[in-house]
């Protein structure tokens, strides 16, 4: 069992190193787009492009000629906006546990339960 834990720990350490290297690569990219306001502009673009890709699939299934054009437009909108959104948001959603900003040590003490007032006085 120790070997399996050692393997898991080594893999987690590898993920952390790989994520830190990737973070260093993208730290200087799209610095003007890292504000929340600008990132919120990219989300609707991705949200519009995804149904466009789905519509292209439906058009293709129906064997309509417009399918390639719809797919091309949707993909030309999706790929840059998705890439910019991933870079601007710093990829925190797939960060290893040890790199996450909300990671807490297993030995950390948890705050006690809140003392809520009783509904029946």
Count the strands? 0
What is the approximate shape? flat
Largest sheet, in brief, is: none
Number of separate structural domains = 1
Low-confidence stretches: none
Bin the strand percentage.
Answer: under 5%
Name its key features:
121 residues, mainly alpha, 60% helix, 0% strand
Explain the overall architecture:
With 121 residues, this protein is mainly alpha-helical. It has one domain. The protein is 60% helix and 0% strand. It contains 3 helices and no strands. It is flat and about 55 Å long. The relative contact order is 0.13.
Q: What's the SSE blueprint?
A:
Layout: H1 2-26, H2 36-61, H3 67-88
Helix pairs in contact: 2-3
Could you give a quick summary of the protein structure above?
The protein is mostly helical and 121 residues long.
